[in-house]
Amino acid sequence: MALEAVHVSDVPYLDQVPENVALSLLSSRFNKGVSDDGDDTKRKFEFPKFMVMGHRGSGMNMLQSSDRRMKSMKENSILSFNSASKFPIDFIEFDVQGEIVEKRVTELSLAELLSYGPQKNPEVVGKPLFRKTKDGRIFEWKVEKDAPLCTLQEVFKEVDGSLGFNIELKFDDQMVYTEKELTHVLQVILKVVYEHAKDRRIIFSSFQPDAALLIRKLQSTYPVFADAAIQVFFLTNGGSQTYTDVRRGSLDEAIVVCLAGGLQGIVSEVKAIFKNPVAVKTIHESKLSLVTYGELNNVPEVVYLQRFMGIEGVIVDLVPEITEAVANFENNVKKGEEEASFFVEEGKVKADFQFSRNELSLFQKLIPELMQI
Protein backbone atom coordinates (compact mmCIF):
# COMPACT_ATOMS: atom_id res chain seq x y z
CA MET A 1 0.00 0.00 0.00
CA ALA A 2 1.48 3.31 -1.03
CA LEU A 3 0.78 6.76 0.27
CA GLU A 4 -0.71 9.44 -1.94
CA ALA A 5 1.89 11.24 -4.05
CA VAL A 6 2.62 14.43 -2.12
CA HIS A 7 5.68 16.64 -2.49
CA VAL A 8 7.52 17.03 0.81
CA SER A 9 7.06 20.80 0.76
CA ASP A 10 3.29 20.33 0.37
CA VAL A 11 2.86 18.23 3.51
CA PRO A 12 1.17 20.42 6.14
CA TYR A 13 1.83 20.30 9.84
CA LEU A 14 -1.32 20.07 11.92
CA ASP A 15 -1.06 23.70 12.98
CA GLN A 16 -1.39 24.60 9.30
CA VAL A 17 -4.79 22.94 8.92
CA PRO A 18 -7.49 25.63 8.42
CA GLU A 19 -9.14 26.72 11.66
CA ASN A 20 -12.62 26.76 10.16
CA VAL A 21 -12.75 22.99 9.81
CA ALA A 22 -16.22 21.85 10.85
CA LEU A 23 -15.96 19.28 13.62
CA SER A 24 -18.99 17.28 14.63
CA LEU A 25 -19.85 14.77 17.31
CA LEU A 26 -18.38 11.31 17.17
CA SER A 27 -20.22 8.77 15.08
CA SER A 28 -22.99 7.08 17.06
CA ARG A 29 -21.37 3.75 16.20
CA PHE A 30 -18.46 4.40 18.55
CA ASN A 31 -17.72 5.86 21.96
CA LYS A 32 -14.78 8.07 22.70
CA GLY A 33 -11.77 6.67 24.51
CA VAL A 34 -10.62 9.97 26.03
CA SER A 35 -12.71 12.91 27.12
CA ASP A 36 -12.52 16.19 25.20
CA ASP A 37 -11.54 18.29 28.18
CA GLY A 38 -8.25 16.47 28.59
CA ASP A 39 -9.43 14.54 31.62
CA ASP A 40 -7.75 11.18 31.94
CA THR A 41 -11.10 9.59 32.69
CA LYS A 42 -11.58 6.95 30.04
CA ARG A 43 -14.68 5.32 28.68
CA LYS A 44 -14.32 2.00 26.96
CA PHE A 45 -14.36 2.20 23.18
CA GLU A 46 -17.34 0.08 22.17
CA PHE A 47 -17.71 -1.84 18.94
CA PRO A 48 -21.41 -2.17 18.09
CA LYS A 49 -21.03 -5.95 17.66
CA PHE A 50 -18.51 -8.73 17.22
CA MET A 51 -16.36 -7.51 14.34
CA VAL A 52 -14.81 -9.50 11.48
CA MET A 53 -11.97 -7.77 9.64
CA GLY A 54 -10.45 -8.93 6.37
CA HIS A 55 -6.67 -9.30 6.68
CA ARG A 56 -5.08 -7.24 3.90
CA GLY A 57 -8.48 -7.34 2.24
CA SER A 58 -9.42 -10.87 1.27
CA GLY A 59 -6.45 -12.46 3.03
CA MET A 60 -2.69 -12.44 3.28
CA ASN A 61 -0.63 -13.99 0.47
CA MET A 62 1.38 -16.93 1.77
CA LEU A 63 3.27 -17.99 -1.35
CA GLN A 64 4.93 -20.92 0.42
CA SER A 65 1.56 -22.40 1.42
CA SER A 66 -0.03 -25.35 -0.35
CA ASP A 67 -3.46 -23.80 0.32
CA ARG A 68 -4.57 -22.09 -2.90
CA ARG A 69 -6.76 -19.70 -0.91
CA MET A 70 -3.60 -18.07 0.45
CA LYS A 71 -2.42 -17.08 -3.01
CA SER A 72 -5.62 -16.65 -4.97
CA MET A 73 -5.70 -12.83 -4.99
CA LYS A 74 -3.13 -10.04 -4.56
CA GLU A 75 -3.24 -8.76 -0.99
CA ASN A 76 -3.41 -5.03 -0.21
CA SER A 77 -5.04 -4.31 -3.57
CA ILE A 78 -8.28 -2.64 -4.63
CA LEU A 79 -9.33 -6.01 -6.07
CA SER A 80 -8.78 -7.73 -2.72
CA PHE A 81 -10.58 -5.01 -0.76
CA ASN A 82 -13.63 -4.96 -3.01
CA SER A 83 -13.80 -8.75 -3.09
CA ALA A 84 -13.83 -8.80 0.72
CA SER A 85 -16.58 -6.17 0.78
CA LYS A 86 -18.96 -8.65 -0.89
CA PHE A 87 -19.10 -10.53 2.42
CA PRO A 88 -20.52 -9.32 5.76
CA ILE A 89 -17.27 -7.93 7.15
CA ASP A 90 -17.00 -4.71 9.13
CA PHE A 91 -13.43 -3.60 8.38
CA ILE A 92 -10.58 -4.37 6.06
CA GLU A 93 -7.08 -4.28 7.50
CA PHE A 94 -4.22 -3.17 5.28
CA ASP A 95 -0.65 -1.86 5.40
CA VAL A 96 0.46 1.60 4.38
CA GLN A 97 4.13 0.73 4.17
CA GLY A 98 6.22 -2.34 3.49
CA GLU A 99 9.27 -3.51 1.61
CA ILE A 100 9.89 -4.16 -2.08
CA VAL A 101 12.92 -6.39 -2.73
CA GLU A 102 15.73 -4.67 -0.76
CA LYS A 103 14.32 -1.14 -0.88
CA ARG A 104 11.89 0.40 1.55
CA VAL A 105 8.79 2.07 0.21
CA THR A 106 9.99 5.36 1.69
CA GLU A 107 13.13 5.12 -0.48
CA LEU A 108 11.11 4.91 -3.70
CA SER A 109 9.36 7.62 -5.65
CA LEU A 110 5.67 6.93 -6.21
CA ALA A 111 6.30 6.34 -9.92
CA GLU A 112 9.03 3.81 -9.16
CA LEU A 113 6.86 2.04 -6.60
CA LEU A 114 3.92 1.73 -8.97
CA SER A 115 6.20 0.35 -11.70
CA TYR A 116 6.25 -3.00 -9.85
CA GLY A 117 3.68 -5.71 -10.50
CA PRO A 118 0.72 -5.56 -12.91
CA GLN A 119 0.13 -2.19 -14.54
CA LYS A 120 -3.11 -0.35 -15.15
CA ASN A 121 -1.99 0.08 -18.74
CA PRO A 122 -2.06 -3.47 -20.16
CA GLU A 123 0.59 -2.56 -22.73
CA VAL A 124 3.14 -1.88 -19.98
CA VAL A 125 4.96 -4.76 -18.29
CA GLY A 126 5.69 -4.17 -14.62
CA LYS A 127 8.82 -5.16 -12.76
CA PRO A 128 8.55 -8.49 -10.90
CA LEU A 129 7.81 -8.52 -7.18
CA PHE A 130 9.34 -10.95 -4.68
CA ARG A 131 8.42 -11.92 -1.11
CA LYS A 132 10.81 -13.08 1.60
CA THR A 133 9.54 -15.46 4.28
CA LYS A 134 10.63 -15.27 7.92
CA ASP A 135 12.97 -18.22 7.36
CA GLY A 136 14.74 -16.37 4.55
CA ARG A 137 13.20 -18.08 1.52
CA ILE A 138 12.34 -15.86 -1.44
CA PHE A 139 9.33 -16.41 -3.69
CA GLU A 140 8.24 -14.49 -6.75
CA TRP A 141 4.99 -12.80 -5.84
CA LYS A 142 2.59 -14.61 -8.16
CA VAL A 143 -1.10 -15.10 -7.42
CA GLU A 144 -4.07 -16.37 -9.44
CA LYS A 145 -5.81 -12.97 -9.54
CA ASP A 146 -3.16 -10.28 -9.70
CA ALA A 147 -3.75 -6.55 -9.38
CA PRO A 148 -1.76 -3.29 -9.52
CA LEU A 149 -0.35 -1.66 -6.42
CA CYS A 150 -2.44 1.25 -5.20
CA THR A 151 -2.23 4.43 -3.18
CA LEU A 152 -4.07 5.18 0.04
CA GLN A 153 -6.04 7.88 -1.73
CA GLU A 154 -7.22 5.38 -4.36
CA VAL A 155 -8.40 3.01 -1.64
CA PHE A 156 -10.56 5.71 -0.09
CA LYS A 157 -12.04 6.57 -3.47
CA GLU A 158 -12.59 3.06 -4.87
CA VAL A 159 -13.66 0.96 -1.88
CA ASP A 160 -17.23 0.92 -0.50
CA GLY A 161 -17.58 3.78 1.99
CA SER A 162 -19.54 1.67 4.47
CA LEU A 163 -16.49 -0.53 5.05
CA GLY A 164 -14.24 0.50 7.93
CA PHE A 165 -10.47 0.77 7.46
CA ASN A 166 -7.97 -0.69 9.93
CA ILE A 167 -4.83 1.05 8.68
CA GLU A 168 -1.67 -0.65 9.93
CA LEU A 169 1.26 1.75 10.09
CA LYS A 170 4.26 -0.26 8.94
CA PHE A 171 7.80 0.53 10.06
CA ASP A 172 11.08 -1.36 9.83
CA ASP A 173 11.84 -3.28 13.03
CA GLN A 174 15.56 -2.91 12.35
CA MET A 175 15.51 0.88 12.26
CA VAL A 176 15.43 3.48 15.01
CA TYR A 177 13.22 6.40 14.05
CA THR A 178 13.42 9.93 15.37
CA GLU A 179 10.22 11.69 16.37
CA LYS A 180 10.70 14.06 13.44
CA GLU A 181 10.86 11.15 10.97
CA LEU A 182 7.77 9.50 12.42
CA THR A 183 5.89 12.78 12.53
CA HIS A 184 6.52 13.47 8.86
CA VAL A 185 5.29 10.04 7.73
CA LEU A 186 2.24 10.13 9.97
CA GLN A 187 1.24 13.62 8.89
CA VAL A 188 1.31 12.51 5.25
CA ILE A 189 -1.07 9.70 6.16
CA LEU A 190 -3.31 11.97 8.22
CA LYS A 191 -3.49 14.44 5.35
CA VAL A 192 -4.89 11.75 3.04
CA VAL A 193 -7.31 10.53 5.73
CA TYR A 194 -8.41 14.08 6.53
CA GLU A 195 -9.21 14.79 2.87
CA HIS A 196 -10.89 11.51 1.98
CA ALA A 197 -12.26 9.70 5.06
CA LYS A 198 -15.68 11.40 5.05
CA ASP A 199 -17.84 9.24 7.38
CA ARG A 200 -15.73 6.08 7.06
CA ARG A 201 -14.77 4.36 10.31
CA ILE A 202 -10.99 4.43 10.83
CA ILE A 203 -8.67 2.49 13.11
CA PHE A 204 -4.92 3.12 13.11
CA SER A 205 -2.74 0.31 14.44
CA SER A 206 1.00 -0.24 14.67
CA PHE A 207 3.59 -2.55 16.19
CA GLN A 208 5.82 0.52 16.54
CA PRO A 209 4.81 1.93 19.94
CA ASP A 210 6.13 5.43 19.27
CA ALA A 211 4.18 5.58 16.00
CA ALA A 212 0.98 4.47 17.75
CA LEU A 213 1.43 7.01 20.53
CA LEU A 214 2.38 9.80 18.16
CA ILE A 215 -0.51 9.35 15.72
CA ARG A 216 -2.91 9.38 18.68
CA LYS A 217 -1.35 12.66 19.79
CA LEU A 218 -1.41 14.16 16.29
CA GLN A 219 -4.98 13.21 15.38
CA SER A 220 -6.42 14.15 18.77
CA THR A 221 -6.24 17.78 17.67
CA TYR A 222 -8.85 16.92 15.04
CA PRO A 223 -10.37 13.69 16.42
CA VAL A 224 -13.26 13.63 13.98
CA PHE A 225 -12.89 13.90 10.24
CA ALA A 226 -16.39 14.56 8.85
CA ASP A 227 -18.09 12.25 11.38
CA ALA A 228 -15.47 9.49 11.15
CA ALA A 229 -14.36 8.37 14.61
CA ILE A 230 -10.62 7.66 14.51
CA GLN A 231 -9.32 5.09 16.95
CA VAL A 232 -5.72 4.02 17.66
CA PHE A 233 -4.83 0.47 18.66
CA PHE A 234 -1.43 -0.96 19.65
CA LEU A 235 -0.39 -4.12 17.81
CA THR A 236 1.47 -6.80 19.75
CA ASN A 237 2.48 -10.42 19.28
CA GLY A 238 2.27 -10.75 23.05
CA GLY A 239 5.88 -11.75 23.64
CA SER A 240 6.34 -14.50 21.07
CA GLN A 241 9.41 -12.64 19.77
CA THR A 242 12.18 -10.79 21.58
CA TYR A 243 12.69 -7.08 20.97
CA THR A 244 15.06 -4.56 22.46
CA ASP A 245 12.05 -2.33 23.08
CA VAL A 246 10.48 -3.81 26.22
CA ARG A 247 7.13 -2.23 25.34
CA ARG A 248 6.73 -4.87 22.65
CA GLY A 249 7.46 -7.76 24.99
CA SER A 250 4.09 -8.75 26.44
CA LEU A 251 0.38 -8.08 26.72
CA ASP A 252 1.00 -6.40 30.07
CA GLU A 253 3.38 -3.95 28.41
CA ALA A 254 0.84 -3.35 25.66
CA ILE A 255 -1.72 -2.35 28.28
CA VAL A 256 0.77 0.08 29.81
CA VAL A 257 1.44 1.67 26.40
CA CYS A 258 -2.28 2.10 25.73
CA LEU A 259 -3.09 3.60 29.11
CA ALA A 260 -0.11 5.94 29.02
CA GLY A 261 -0.94 7.26 25.56
CA GLY A 262 -4.74 7.28 25.61
CA LEU A 263 -5.02 4.55 22.98
CA GLN A 264 -8.36 2.80 22.60
CA GLY A 265 -7.35 -0.83 22.31
CA ILE A 266 -4.99 -3.69 21.58
CA VAL A 267 -4.64 -5.95 18.54
CA SER A 268 -2.93 -9.13 19.75
CA GLU A 269 -1.68 -12.31 18.14
CA VAL A 270 -4.39 -14.80 19.09
CA LYS A 271 -1.93 -17.36 20.48
CA ALA A 272 -0.80 -14.84 23.09
CA ILE A 273 -4.40 -14.56 24.30
CA PHE A 274 -4.82 -18.31 24.66
CA LYS A 275 -1.50 -18.59 26.48
CA ASN A 276 -2.59 -15.84 28.87
CA PRO A 277 -6.41 -15.78 28.92
CA VAL A 278 -6.47 -13.78 32.17
CA ALA A 279 -5.17 -10.85 30.12
CA VAL A 280 -8.60 -10.52 28.49
CA LYS A 281 -10.14 -9.58 31.83
CA THR A 282 -7.28 -7.19 32.60
CA ILE A 283 -7.66 -5.49 29.22
CA HIS A 284 -11.40 -5.05 29.69
CA GLU A 285 -10.97 -3.76 33.23
CA SER A 286 -8.53 -1.23 31.78
CA LYS A 287 -11.39 -0.05 29.54
CA LEU A 288 -9.56 -1.12 26.39
CA SER A 289 -10.93 -3.00 23.42
CA LEU A 290 -9.34 -6.21 22.19
CA VAL A 291 -9.05 -7.56 18.65
CA THR A 292 -6.89 -10.50 17.56
CA TYR A 293 -4.99 -11.58 14.46
CA GLY A 294 -3.16 -14.73 13.39
CA GLU A 295 -3.58 -17.91 11.37
CA LEU A 296 -5.66 -19.53 14.13
CA ASN A 297 -8.38 -17.01 13.35
CA ASN A 298 -9.08 -18.98 10.18
CA VAL A 299 -10.49 -21.78 12.34
CA PRO A 300 -14.22 -21.21 13.10
CA GLU A 301 -14.06 -22.92 16.50
CA VAL A 302 -11.25 -20.59 17.57
CA VAL A 303 -13.34 -17.58 16.55
CA TYR A 304 -16.37 -18.97 18.44
CA LEU A 305 -14.31 -19.30 21.61
CA GLN A 306 -13.03 -15.73 21.34
CA ARG A 307 -16.58 -14.47 20.94
CA PHE A 308 -17.46 -16.34 24.12
CA MET A 309 -14.40 -14.88 25.92
CA GLY A 310 -15.54 -11.34 25.20
CA ILE A 311 -12.96 -10.51 22.53
CA GLU A 312 -14.51 -7.87 20.31
CA GLY A 313 -13.17 -8.73 16.87
CA VAL A 314 -10.95 -10.93 14.73
CA ILE A 315 -8.75 -10.24 11.70
CA VAL A 316 -9.00 -13.17 9.30
CA ASP A 317 -7.69 -14.42 5.95
CA LEU A 318 -10.54 -16.77 5.04
CA VAL A 319 -13.22 -14.11 4.80
CA PRO A 320 -16.02 -16.21 3.20
CA GLU A 321 -15.64 -19.10 5.63
CA ILE A 322 -15.32 -17.06 8.82
CA THR A 323 -18.09 -14.57 8.04
CA GLU A 324 -20.44 -17.47 7.35
CA ALA A 325 -19.40 -19.22 10.59
CA VAL A 326 -19.89 -16.03 12.64
CA ALA A 327 -23.30 -15.39 11.06
CA ASN A 328 -24.41 -18.94 11.93
CA PHE A 329 -23.12 -18.53 15.46
CA GLU A 330 -24.88 -15.19 15.95
CA ASN A 331 -28.13 -16.68 14.63
CA ASN A 332 -27.84 -19.47 17.17
CA VAL A 333 -27.24 -16.93 19.93
CA LYS A 334 -30.28 -14.93 18.85
CA LYS A 335 -32.39 -18.08 18.70
CA GLY A 336 -31.23 -19.07 22.17
CA GLU A 337 -32.08 -15.64 23.55
CA GLU A 338 -35.56 -15.78 21.99
CA GLU A 339 -36.15 -19.22 23.49
CA ALA A 340 -35.00 -17.93 26.90
CA SER A 341 -37.43 -15.01 26.63
CA PHE A 342 -40.22 -17.42 25.77
CA PHE A 343 -39.47 -19.49 28.85
CA VAL A 344 -39.65 -16.37 31.02
CA GLU A 345 -42.96 -15.32 29.51
CA GLU A 346 -44.38 -18.76 30.20
CA GLY A 347 -43.29 -18.54 33.83
CA LYS A 348 -40.55 -21.10 33.41
CA VAL A 349 -36.97 -20.95 34.61
CA LYS A 350 -34.86 -18.41 32.76
CA ALA A 351 -31.93 -19.90 30.89
CA ASP A 352 -29.16 -17.80 29.31
CA PHE A 353 -27.82 -19.02 25.98
CA GLN A 354 -24.27 -20.29 26.35
CA PHE A 355 -21.90 -22.95 25.12
CA SER A 356 -22.67 -26.43 26.35
CA ARG A 357 -20.11 -28.10 28.60
CA ASN A 358 -19.31 -30.52 25.79
CA GLU A 359 -18.62 -27.64 23.41
CA LEU A 360 -16.38 -25.87 25.92
CA SER A 361 -14.54 -29.09 26.62
CA LEU A 362 -14.01 -29.59 22.90
CA PHE A 363 -12.63 -26.05 22.50
CA GLN A 364 -10.32 -26.45 25.47
CA LYS A 365 -8.91 -29.64 24.01
CA LEU A 366 -8.72 -28.18 20.53
CA ILE A 367 -6.79 -25.02 21.37
CA PRO A 368 -3.55 -26.68 22.65
CA GLU A 369 -3.39 -28.77 19.49
CA LEU A 370 -3.96 -25.76 17.27
CA MET A 371 -1.31 -23.78 19.17
CA GLN A 372 1.26 -26.18 17.69
CA ILE A 373 0.38 -25.18 14.10
TrEMBL record:
What PROSITE patterns does this protein's entry cite? GP_PDE
**EC class of the enzyme, as a word:** hydrolase
Gene3D superfamilies, per database record: Phosphatidylinositol (PI) phosphodiesterase
Domain GP-PDE residue range list: 50-326
Give the matching Pfam families.
GDPD
Q: Which reaction does it catalyse?
A: a sn-glycero-3-phosphodiester + H2O = an alcohol + sn-glycerol 3-phosphate + H(+)
What are the protein's UniProt keywords?
Glycerol metabolism, Hydrolase
What is this enzyme's EC? 3.1.4.46
Q: Which SUPFAM superfamilies match?
A: PLC-like phosphodiesterases
Protein name (Swiss-Prot/TrEMBL):
glycerophosphodiester phosphodiesterase
